[in-house]
Write a structure and sequence with these properties.
Low-confidence stretches: none
Largest sheet: none
Number of strands: 0
Radius of gyration: 15 Å
Shape: elongated
């Protein structure tokens, strides 16, 4: 369940980032580009985050 939730969150972040980039390119609003960059960076940090669960059973 945790993996599914993480994947759903990452997909949502990248879709929102692309939406902000698209809105910013059509309207010329810098705010949308900044929001897109922040959402994209959250996506990449979430994608390459290391798992802290290293227990051996």
């Amino acid at each position: 369940m945790k993996g599914t939730y993480r994947l759903l969150l990452l997909v949502t972040l990248i879709v929102l980032a692309l939406t902000c980039y698209l809105a910013g390119s059509q309207t010329g609003a810098v705010t949308f580009f900044v929001a897109g960059a922040l959402l994209e960076s959250a996506f990449w940090f979430g994608l390459f985050r290391r798992s802290k669960n290293t227990s051996i059973s």
